[in-house]
Inverse folding.
């Protein structure tokens, strides 16, 4: 086997996020070199931060063979509470309350998934529908407005030349990656993902681990809403609506699959960057919305296909 | 721990639409009008047909999020095609092709159904905007008549519902193929070892789902008498909701046509009732969500997660 083909085989074995990012960077260097200036790359990285944070939560629940589609509803609720002036609280207190809301939604999801053994797809989808429905109905009375000054300031702040949202993302990512690799919780999660029944028979707290993952995912959705809101500046009822499904795509492109943590925490993060780069690249090509959607669907599908083909038979399928 | 029966039916799945009907009959005079009942049939036909397609996929433990995009694209194809016959053939062909792609991706390549169908949905949505950028176009009168005409006093919408229900019910309950669906959905490995070609069945399920989505799209296009690239945008999740309300297990192996009819009826009755009471359509999403939560909470499963 030649060197090149063995290199190609190894590249295909990596989660598609890595190969995809490399290919996209190459394509951008060829067609749109401006996109690769450090300043624009940092902006793209900042744009990827909300998706990256949501993808962390998603990959956490997916490792435990569950799923969280409630990010859209949580972000809509957070954006509404923070921008409509419905909460007569000081900004830090309002932010704290929103974090609590995220955790509460996550806990509610977890309770139904674990306690009632309801299907996670239906539970989290319904919760998202309920939250966004309430937000839209309420915005007839209090229209969403500007994001809190504090969030907008934070989104604009740079430290050592790096935007604060990116640093915040890294500050969440690195401890999480370390925890999932080294902590008892991470080990328990790996065992449960690999074989829930065996893990439970060995005395691992199966239900508690999945519950905590859901709680963390709700919390991370709220955080991702903060970053998105600070970055966009104004609230709207469909802010973050596609984040739930995009975070699922990011987790899978990052190598995480239901019950398998292959790809770790870094994979979904790279995938979030890849998706943000893809959106920007397609926009910079001057494509309309229609062709952008077509290419986006085709590229995500092809990446997932290539990776699944390489790993077929080794997963749960 | 209770075990689920194969039909997935419980007194809750069947009781819910019954309760809704009785409640609406008692509380709202407009609901009792024959005109409203005819309207109602037309309103739920598209959802029922799409949900019957979703049933095939969910019986095998999959999920299809491209249902809405297939409906939208078939509507656009019908709007730009002057000859209705060719338009219908194109739309049905599209359904089969999309289903084949989804099925091969899931069954042979092993892509997760959510990601596979999500990416085809994104692609098809883009294509729909290319084919017909803004709602409009000309729909042949024959098609409009086929969707909203009457026959012997019966609205055509009921015939579409009846044909779809009868076809799918025959396939699942009376044919060998239907037995294979339940066998593979219940335990794919055992079914495979007993000689069922599980992979081919998955491909077939996705093809049936997309084909029925195309039929739902054709029906709805005829009913609204215009092409619309966003026609089906709500139907991917609505069809999953209808299936789940009908007691179909998303992990596969349990579900029935009766359940899907009950689920689609419940969702339709909810919409119709809230319209009659003048409740904001956004509160309908809230109520649907609550109903779904209640429905999944009364069916305790063995598995934790998905």
């Amino acid at each position: 086997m030649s060197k090149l083909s063995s290199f190609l085989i190894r590249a295909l074995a990596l989660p598609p996020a890595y190969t995809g990012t490399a290919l996209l960077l190459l394509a951008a260097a060829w067609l749109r070199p401006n996109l690769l200036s450090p300043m624009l790359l940092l902006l793209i990285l900042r744009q990827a931060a909300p998706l990256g944070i949501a993808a962390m939560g998603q990959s956490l629940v997916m490792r435990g063979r569950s799923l969280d589609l409630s990010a859209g509803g949580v972000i809509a609720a957070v954006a509404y509470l923070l921008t409509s002036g419905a909460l007569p609280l000081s900004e830090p207190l309002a932010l704290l309350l929103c974090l609590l809301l995220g955790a509460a939604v996550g806990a509610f999801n977890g309770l139904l998934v674990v306690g009632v053994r309801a299907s996670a797809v239906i539970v989290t989808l319904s919760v998202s529908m309920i939250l966004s429905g309430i937000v839209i109905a309420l915005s007839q009375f209090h229209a969403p407005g500007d994001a809190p000054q504090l969030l907008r300031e934070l989104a604009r702040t740079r430290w050592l030349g790096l935007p604060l949202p990116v640093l915040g993302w890294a500050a969440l990512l690195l401890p999480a990656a370390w925890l999932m690799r080294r902590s008892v919780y991470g080990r328990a999660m790996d065992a449960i993902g690999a074989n829930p029944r065996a893990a439970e028979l060995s005395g691992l707290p199966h239900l508690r681990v999945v519950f905590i993952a859901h709680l963390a995912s709700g919390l991370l959705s709220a955080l991702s809403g903060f970053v998105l809101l600070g970055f966009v500046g104004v609230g709207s009822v469909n802010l973050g609506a596609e984040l739930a499904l995009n975070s699922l795509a990011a987790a899978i492109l990052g190598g995480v699959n239901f019950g398998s943590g292959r790809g770790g925490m870094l994979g979904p993060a790279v995938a979030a960057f890849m998706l943000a780069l893809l959106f920007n690249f397609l926009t910079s090509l001057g494509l309309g919305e229609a062709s952008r959607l077509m290419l986006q669907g085709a590229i995500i599908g092809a990446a997932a296909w290539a990776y699944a083909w390489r790993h077929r038979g080794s997963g749960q399928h | 721990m209770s075990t689920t029966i194969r039909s997935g039916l419980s007194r809750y799945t069947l009781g819910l639409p019954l309760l809704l009907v009785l409640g609406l009959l008692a509380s709202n005079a407009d609901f009792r009008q024959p005109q409203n009942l005819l309207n109602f049939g037309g309103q739920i036909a598209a959802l029922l047909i799409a949900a019957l397609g979703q049933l095939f996929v969910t019986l095998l433990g999959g999920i299809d999020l491209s249902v809405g995009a297939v409906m939208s694209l078939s509507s656009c194809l019908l709007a730009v095609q002057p000859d209705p016959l060719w338009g219908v053939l194109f739309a049905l062909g599209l359904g089969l092709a999309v289903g084949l792609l989804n099925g091969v991706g899931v069954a042979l390549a092993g892509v997760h159904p959510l990601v596979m169908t999500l990416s085809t949905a994104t692609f098809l949505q883009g294509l729909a905007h290319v084919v017909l950028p803004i709602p409009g176009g000309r729909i042949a009168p024959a098609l409009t008549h086929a969707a909203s005409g009457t026959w012997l006093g019966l609205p055509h919408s009921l015939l579409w519902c009846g044909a779809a229900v009868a076809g799918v019910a025959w396939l699942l309950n009376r044919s060998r193929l239907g037995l294979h669906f339940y066998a593979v959905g219940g335990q794919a490995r055992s079914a495979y070892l007993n000689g069922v070609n599980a992979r081919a069945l998955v491909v077939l399920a996705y093809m049936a789902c997309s084909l029925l989505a195309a039929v739902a799209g054709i029906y709805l296009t005829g009913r609204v008498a215009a092409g619309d690239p966003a026609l089906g945008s709500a139907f991917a999740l609505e069809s999953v909701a209808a299936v789940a309300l009908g007691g179909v297990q998303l992990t596969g192996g349990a579900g029935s046509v009766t359940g899907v009819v009950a689920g689609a009826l419940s969702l339709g009755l909810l919409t119709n009732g809230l319209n009659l009471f003048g409740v904001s359509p956004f509160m309908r999403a809230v109520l649907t969500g609550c109903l779904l939560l209640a429905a999944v909470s009364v069916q305790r499963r063995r598995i934790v997660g998905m």
Summary: The first helix of chain B runs from residue 11 to 27. Chain B is about 75% helix and 0% strand. The longest strand of chain B covers residues 150-151. Chain B has a mean pLDDT of 88.
